[in-house]
Automatic annotation (TrEMBL), chain A:
Source organism (scientific name): Actinomadura violacea
UniProt-listed Enzyme Commission number(s): 4.1.2.4
Record flagged with keyword Iron-sulfur: no
Family: Belongs to the DeoC/FbaB aldolase family. DeoC type 2 subfamily.
Encoding gene, per UniProt annotation: deoC
Keywords: Lyase, Schiff base
GO terms for MF: deoxyribose-phosphate aldolase activity
Protein name: Deoxyribose-phosphate aldolase
């Protein structure tokens, strides 16, 4: 396969020029829109039942990035969310804990303190989330503050304006700068696919982010509609699969926003397994950015264990 | 020419109606894709009705839960207006209901009388919306500087296993449950489900918010246990359940301490307030005075 001609042997540290980057991104094969949508829809019809469903639910719970990104967030709310992250269903200790808690930078300290000893990481959005419209210096300061407060993962947004106007190098350099500011922390790059308008752009943005050093590529901020969709995630999963084939480096994927039901979550798991492969089916390489889906997963889990339908009254409000 | 027209008209293919479920204001097919044939008293095929599954019960309960806040939050006057509007729409479908009741063996006069009685019953319950709190509530005398009020509040989501009286019985169990602000999941009569779905068409074209009444057709013995054990259902009306099945359903309903109501009655009799008060909870408020 020579489609990704100059992608072979690309290292993230390579200094590259605007022309090379543009040529590379525009040289990526186009996405078959109808084909991608059909395949995503086809995979979504897989029926996952009984013991397979039970396993899928537990896996999905362990992949959740429990998120609260509201202007109205308080320390108390974050602490409550952290308690839920460690023990999603306090009445059932067999429920796995979630992968991480995702908060705004100023709440990182509270989250880190609340999660001490649980082994759950704190992810922080940064770089003028959700619009990304701030000077680079401010974005870097935002990132450094979050890392200094103890965030193990940084969710940055790309400059969609620059990307859409074709200034790929600016986006690339911003990502590398933020990656540097992250230090040891993992970097998730939010593409905000709802604003990228085409699947071709999603594929280009994925490759751009991965080449700039992203540890994860993430669909959306959750503040723009449409947020994560199955076809968009399919395109991104293909990108990480092809990127690993080309460079040997594995990058994770995180769909975020719009995942509300257990059925949705299981559809994503099927998509991961069939597209990127089972290597990605761990919380280390695949995350679900959501909060409301957790209660639905817990309700379904209890339905499987008790045999009767449960209700939202028996789980925490958040 | 005209002869050909006549011939063509008599050859016209029958436009058969597809009866579906009524969940959250929409008419989906059963999640299971199943249906069952409905026959008249002479065993002739009338129509296929959806054969709902437990997942349809689950979907209907979430639709009812979602609708509860909005419906119970409306003013009693508004609920009365909406119920009256439904009665207006029922009146417009009179002939269709009569035809459907005749399939169940009723004579023309009997069918017409039953439809009239059902519409009248609906209007009667509509009038109760803004009166029930006066009848079922109270201003209580207390020995302290307080106003003390007891006001009835809707219970929440009410599951209803409807009796086999396909229209009058159905109306008599559904109207009292919703007029006070509850939302419902109704399992329609198994042998005669068609008037229930026609009622759903009436509801969909009236001002009733989607999800306040959800109607499922199918096998009662299959659906009732899921409704009775559902932890997000607050009360259940077992009127349409045969005696033998009641204990097991009551057991299942005890899981979350559902209110259980069952009263068999002659539907032609004047209804009392029992069916309304069965699905009300009383809230008592102590309001300080002179402070």
């Amino acid at each position: 396969m020579r489609v990704f001609g100059d992608a072979w042997g690309v290292s993230t540290e390579t200094l590259i020029g605007a022309a090379e980057l543009r040529a590379f991104l525009h040289g990526l094969p186009g996405v078959d829109q109808v084909g991608a949508e059909e395949r995503a829809a086809r995979l979504a019809t897989r029926s996952i039942k009984t013991s397979a469903k039970a396993e899928a639910i537990d896996l999905a719970i362990s992949m959740v990035d429990l998120t609260t990104l509201e202007g109205a967030d308080t320390a108390g709310k974050v602490a409550a969310l952290c308690a839920k992250a460690a023990h999603p269903d306090p009445s059932d200790p067999s429920v796995p804990k979630v992968a991480a808690v995702c908060v705004y930078p100023d709440m990182v300290e509270v989250a880190v303190r609340s999660l001490e000893g649980t082994g759950i990481g704190v992810a922080s959005v940064a770089t003028a989330f959700p619009s990304g419209r701030a000077p680079l210096e401010a974005k870097l300061a935002d990132t450094r503050a979050a890392v200094a407060a103890g965030a193990a993962e940084i969710d940055m947004v790309i400059d969609r304006g620059a990307f859409l106007s074709g200034d790929f190098l600016k986006v690339f350099e911003e990502i590398t700068a933020v990656k540097q500011a992250c230090g040891q922390a993992h970097l998730k790059v939010i593409l905000e696919t709802g604003e990228l308008s085409t699947y071709d752009n999603v594929r280009r943005a994925s490759w751009l982010a991965m080449r700039a050093g992203a540890d994860f590529i993430k669909t959306s901020t959750g503040k723009v509609s449409p947020a994560a969709t199955l076809p968009v995630t399919l395109v991104m999963l293909e990108a990480v699969r092809d990127y690993r084939a080309a460079t040997g480096r594995q990058v994770g994927v995180k769909p975020a926003g719009g995942i509300r039901t257990t059925k949705d979550a299981i559809k994503y798991l099927v998509l991961v397994n069939e597209t990127a492969g089972p290597d990605w089916l761990t919380p280390h390489w695949f995350r679900l950015g959501a909060s409301s889906v957790l209660n639905d997963l817990l309700m379904q889990r209890r339905k499987l264990s008790t045999g009767v339908y449960s209700g939202p009254d028996y789980f925490t409000l958040d | 020419m005209s002869e050909r027209m006549t011939k063509r008209m008599s050859d016209r293919l029958a436009v058969r109606k597809t009866y579906k479920l009524y969940i959250g204001g929409a008419f989906p097919r059963s999640e299971s894709g199943r249906s069952y044939p409905v026959t008249d008293t002479k065993d002739r095929f009338v129509a296929n009705a959806s054969h709902a599954s437990r997942k349809d019960v689950r979907d209907a309960v979430s639709a009812a839960r979602k609708a509860f806040g909005g419906w119970s939050g409306r003013t009693a006057y508004n609920r009365a207006q909406i119920l009256y509007r439904i009665a207006e729409m029922l009146e417009g479908r009179r002939d269709q209901f009569i035809t459907e009741l005749r399939h169940t063996g009723a004579s023309k006069t009997q069918a017409a009388n039953e439809v009239d009685a059902a519409i009248d019953r609906w209007v009667w319950y509509a009038g109760w919306a803004d009166k029930i709190s006066t009848v079922a509530g109270a201003a209580n005398p207390v020995s302290g500087p307080f106003f003390n009020f007891s006001t009835p509040e809707p219970t929440g989501v009410v599951g209803i296993i409807a009796p086999d009286s396909p229209l009058l019985g159905l109306v008599s169990v559904v109207a009292p449950a919703i007029v006070t602000g509850n939302t419902t999941v109704v399992i329609a009569s198994e042998p005669a489900p068609l008037p229930a779905i026609t009622l759903a068409e009436v509801l969909a074209t009236s001002d009733l918010p989607g999800g306040v009444i959800n109607i499922l057709t199918g096998h009662r013995t299959e659906l009732a246990p899921w409704l009775a054990s559902h932890m997000d259902v607050n009360a259940i009306d077992l009127t349409g359940v045969p005696d033998a099945d009641v204990p097991s359903l009551e057991d299942a309903a005890a899981g979350n301490l559902k209110r259980v109501f069952r009263a068999s009655e002659d539907w032609a009799d004047d209804p009392g307030t029992a069916r309304m008060t069965a699905f009300l909870e009383v809230k008592t408020v102590w309001h300080p005075v002179g402070v």
